[in-house]
Hints:
The protein has 547 residues and is an alpha/beta fold.
Amino acid sequence: MSDDIVIKTVATKPYLDQMPGTSGLRKKVPVFQQENYPENFIQSIFDVSGDVKGKKLVIGGDGRFYNDQVIQKAIRLAVANGFGHVMIGQNGILSTPAVSNLIRKYKALGGIVLSASHNPGGPKQDFGIKYNISNGGPAPEKFTNAAFERSKVIDQYLTVETSDIDLSQIGKHQIGATTIEIIDSVADYAEMMEDIFDFDAIRAYIQSGFTLQFDAMHAVTGPYAKEIFEKRLGAAEGSVINAVPLPDFGGQHPDPNLIYAKGLYDLLMSDNAPDFGAASDGDGDRNMIIGRGMFVAPSDSLAVLAANAHLVPAYSAGLKGIARSMPTSCAADRVAEKLKIGMYEVPTGWKFFGNLLDHQMATICGEESAGTSSDHVREKDGLWAVLLWLNILAVRRQSVADIVNEHWRHFGRNYYSRHDFEGVDTEVANKVMQRLRGELASLAGTSIDGQTIEKADDFAYHDPVDQSVSAHQGIRILFDNGSRIVVRLSGTGTTGATIRIYIERYEADEDKLALDTQEALAELIAIAEKIIQVKAITGFETPTAII
Ligand code: G1P
Ligand code: ZN
């Protein structure tokens, strides 16, 4: 071991915008390129982490532009702050769920994920830093608030002068008292998936002729998907497309939805469709599931997965409970009711699931925004969701469409859509919310277009484990027939504000289970505008995205 490193104290001044949102600190690359900007944020995290001396830290990212440079900065800060062991994915690549697994498996103090999730990458695009704590989950609000407060007064950070570490070679380096280890990005994650699922059953199903296509969108899941689907499960070579992570994701948004993964959608709706299609986002925590001729909305996917999870080895003893974010449709609630297990409604953002998972109150969690996962990690997990579907299909030997239709016949269908108004002036967006908040008290009991509002509130979450309260998590307008309208502002955007309106209607009539979603919701969408007045106030004529 060489002890001849020199720890440098760099004087700095705070940047007052280092406030992490629902998924860490997310800004444009040029913001992160300001002198000392990433260093200040990372040092602020270390400063509120207690004693980091000798502890383990995981670092990785989704391969986007600036990833490699921030990793080198983070390594120097970690060494200077006295971490004992820093584990970094080869080529700087680690998916968000893989980081969560590594933290838990190797008992690290925490992990730094460099990603702006599904947002585009490149010199003028987005970058982000997330921090996960020792349970493998995103740092809770208490922690991120403390880091933010620290970043407002930070006047120095610690670093060392060393040459860059070669991230392309697996192996160990020693800098002072710190071991820097470049690890295989995929191995630990793939092993965990083999422990959860029946790979033999999936392999046999694929051998029998079942076909799939996975779109890695030139983002982090490429190497994982190649190894798991093609190598370990025997899917034909080329089943994984866009498999090489690129700094700009090939110029696309690595967002697996009907807009940005339209090619995959079109393929699954075509005559040449494989049996199954799926995609994941920039950092590998989201998933999109499409069967031949049938797109599965994330809220439905959560419900179907929960109802069938017992068919899979890791969940054969049944689920402890199900949790969903508040705006996610209530489809999963019906499954929990039938299974007689707990159902939890938490605010948007994965960190709110952590306590429920840690205390074995919930086993499966999901969000309408294409995030699903279980207690195997403390993040949403795109490839896990795909494998869960594959394992269920391999056992049931029915098509995706048949499974979903059967589910609806049994439980009824929650028609559901999200209407986004992006790029709204922040003040105008706040005005929409403020006006609506002012109306809430008078809404309950009123009828609009023949629909009666039972309750209207600003969702506040009381965490059943630590009793903490998170207020103002979105406005809920609940109708007496089970319909819901939810409104909230996005916490992940990087320019202006995004107003998200979520609309949901329950349908149990067997003859009305195959309607077009927007048509099925048309009446409620009109009612939403009457109540929220988003178009009237913002001047937008239509949503910028309908999901
Ligand atoms: C969005 C999604 C939310 C998800 C988050 C991070 O946040 O709506 O479900 O947890 O991205 O992937 P929002 O922009 O709505 O705050
Ligand atoms: Zn993501």
